[in-house]
Design goal:
It is a single chain. This protein has about 190 residues and is an alpha+beta fold. The protein has one domain. It contains three helices and nine strands. The strands form two sheets. Strands 1-2-5-7-6 form a five-stranded mixed beta barrel. It has a two-stranded antiparallel sheet with strand order 3-4. The protein is globular and about 45 Å long.
Length: about 190
């Protein structure tokens, strides 16, 4: 009888801990921004025929290649990278399926949009946009960003950040949301 009671208490504690931890998962965007995201989005197909794909709400990650700001619009050329949840959350260095452009209506602190930094975006896919990449005009598929999240990695993988250099440091990261979900350019603490 005592063994069953102890076993039952252990199971209840394990269940409670499991429920608590499942609510602790790290996410960089507000929950309402992620509502309606297509988790089965085919990036390769969109990249090949961007003008034939219906506008779709997506969450993508990558490495910043180049940034252009004209007026209140920042265009971020991004090499797509897979988003991972472990050992560190965010885009992970690996083979890119290609480049895309992010159109963000709002201000972003310049150090955050430096080439090499990691970025995630939630937004709506559109057709293509003519952009300058390394002084060459190219047509890239584009996302109208609702929110972007940037890690100031300087080209280092997020998971490797703490082990790079002479010591440990805090990896700076920031979320910026456009006027569709928050005041234009509003920073959301990471």
């Amino acid at each position: 009888m005592v063994v069953k009671e102890t076993h039952m208490k252990f199971l209840l504690k394990a269940l409670w801990f499991s429920l608590i931890c499942s609510g602790c998962s790290y996410q960089v965007f507000p929950s309402d921004v992620l509502n309606g995201v297509d988790h089965d989005f085919d990036f390769a197909r969109w990249r090949m025929i961007p003008n034939e794909i219906q506008p779709t709400k997506v969450e993508l990650g990558g490495r910043i290649v180049e940034t252009q700001t004209i007026g209140g619009t920042t265009t971020i050329i991004t090499a797509e990278l897979p988003i991972v949840r472990y050992p560190a959350y965010g885009p992970k260095q690996g083979k890119s399926k290609g480049e895309f452009a992010i159109s963000y209506q709002g201000e972003v602190d310049k150090p955050f949009v430096h080439p090499g930094n990691r970025i995630m975006v939630v937004g709506i896919t559109r057709g293509t946009k003519m952009v300058h990449v390394d002084d060459v005009v190219r047509s890239l598929p584009i996302i109208d960003a609702t929110c972007i999240h940037v890690w100031k990695t300087g080209g280092t993988d997020i998971a490797d950040y703490a082990s790079s250099g002479a010591g440990y440091g805090v990896l700076e990261e920031e979320t910026f949301c456009a006027s569709t979900s928050a005041p234009s350019g509003k920073k959301i603490p990471a």
